[in-house]
Amino acid sequence: MNSTDDSSLTHLDYCLTGPGTVGGRYMRRFWQPVCRSEDLPGERALPIRILGESFTLYRGEGGTPYVVGQRCPHRGTQLSVGWVEGETIRCRYHGWRFDHSGQCVEIPANSAAFAASMRIPGYPTVERLGLVFAYFGEGDPPDFPYPDFVGHGMVETRVQELGCNFFQSYENDWDLYHAAWTHRTGGLHIPVDPARITFEETAYGVVMRSVRETGLSSTSVLLLPAAIRLPVPTHNALAYRKAGPAWRDTYLFHVPTDDENHLVFVTQEVRISDDELPTYRRHYADYLAERTAMPVKEYGERIVSGELYLADALNHPNLVTLEDYIAQVGQGRIVDRSQDHLSRTDKGVMLLRQLWLRELRALKEGKPVKNWEPMGERPDAEAVEAVLRHEGTGVRKPIGV
Ligand code: FES
Ligand SMILES: [Fe+2]
Questions:
Q1: Which residue puts its alpha carbon closest to atom 3 of ligand 1?
Q2: Crossing angle of the two packed helices 319-329 and 296-305, in degrees rounded to 10
Q3: Ranges for the Rieske domain (predicted)?
């Protein structure tokens, strides 16, 4: 089955997101997460790579994060190795200084007029949901579309790098059926009849509803261009310890670093009482130590290359993430969708491709694209709350662990 219904667009159009590409133009119309808040301390700068371009991310003395161009226009030094001064950043090489809009405000040993004539790009930035987001498109950014969590819990974030194109892992969000097989080894094996998965396009996204064979119903909201909000069972290592709640209100954001690599930012609300917090924090610290000792990307690449068997890594603290890694990276760095043979289990994947193609076609032809509204009240809120209160996780220990 062809992966596109429009001969002027191919599957590569939604994979390639570098500057000037139609996919890149589409992605740049949206706020993109670029860093976890906790990875950017005050008065520090970081180099970041997003959508095939490099930038400088820094946090001003007042606590606000900013994104400006990567390099100093004097002789090209990377600004992230410089100093944050107030709300500005100073280049380490010869001291040129820029404000957060990218305007040069000082050139030592030179005139103010020379400084006023120099600038680098500056990008709108916001900090929400435990993440820093930036807008890389033209004109004013859209309203921030992702509402805060409502349960007044603790916000926990993670970021995972995958060695494949971002669209592969976003397709996975639309592919609920994969859980029955990808996570069969020991993570999250919850069979679902494809006929009991439905999709409804709304003003803010696509609502995916399902009823699992266990009777558990679930509602996820797929938010274009590449995000999802859904209840997620607590990951393996914490679930085994019964640390924290069994389910978490979760956003996943898929962001290309370049065309063959991407980041998945995860932000979750952990609803936990003050009494439980100290114990939970101890478990979480242990979990992070285990996770650091067994990096998902390293283990995933070793399994895909044949150097390691998944069966020999069943004690991995993020087994579910590792299973997803090897399935998605196992498709290749950029899967050739012209070779797909789609089936009735791929309803969501087909719909995602149709939606992206619809929007890319409009963009390419200079026609209006859909302005997705910010997500308001959560659909099926009562049912979702019931899932978030659910005691059983559905996460099983793998056999032999
Ligand atoms: S290279 Fe930045 S001030 Fe010279
Ligand atoms: Fe998965």
A1: 94
A2: 50
A3: 31-134
Tokens 């970021």 locate to: 159
The conformation of residue 45, written as its DSSP 8-state character, comes to E
**pLDDT at position 97, please?**
98
Q: Which residue lies with its CA nearest to atom 4 of ligand 1?
A: 94
Give, as one character, the DSSP assignment of residue 294.
Answer: S
Q: Is residue 5 predicted with pLDDT exceeding 60?
A: no
Of 68, 70, 71, 75, which is best to mutate to test ligand 1, by the most ligand atoms within 8 angstroms of its C-beta? 75
> Which residues have CB under 8 Å from 78's CB, separation 6+?
47, 56, 70, 71, 72
Q: What is the pLDDT of residues 216-238, one digit of tens each?
A: 788 999 999 999 999 988 876 77
Tell the residue nearest (CA) to atom 1 of ligand 1: 75
Domain 154-389 listed as CATH 3.40.1350 = no
Task: Give pLDDT, residue 385.
Answer: 87
DSSP 159-192: EEEESS-HHHHHHHHT-GGGHHHHTTTTS----E
Question: Domain 31-135: which CATH class?
Answer: mainly beta
Ligand nearest to the CA of 162: 2
Rounded Cα distance between 188 and 191, Å, is: 9
Contact yes or no for 256/161 (Cβ under 8 A): no
Atom of ligand 1 nearest to the CA of 96: 3
Compute the 3-state secondary structure of the chain and give helix, strand, coil in percent, each to the nearest 5. Answer: 30, 30, 45
Work out which ligand 1 atom sits closest to the CA atom of 76.
1
Angle at 161 between CA 142 and CA 327, to 5 degrees: 110
Q: What is the DSSP string of 347-365?
A: HHHHHHHHHHHHHHHHHHT
Instruction: Report the pocket of ligand 1 as residue ranges, CB < 6 Å.
Output: 72, 74-75, 77, 91, 93-96
Domain ranges of the chain: 31-135, 154-389
Phi-psi region of 11 (alpha: psi -120 to 50; beta: other; left: phi over 0): alpha
Ligand approaching nearest to the C-alpha of 179: 2
Fold equal for 31-135 and 154-389: no
The rounded distance, in Å, linking the Cα atoms of 269 and 149 is 7
ipTM tops the 0.90 cut:
yes
Query: How far is the centre of ligand 2, averaged over its atoms, from the C-alpha of 378 (Å)?
Result: 23
Strands (E), 259-312: 261-270
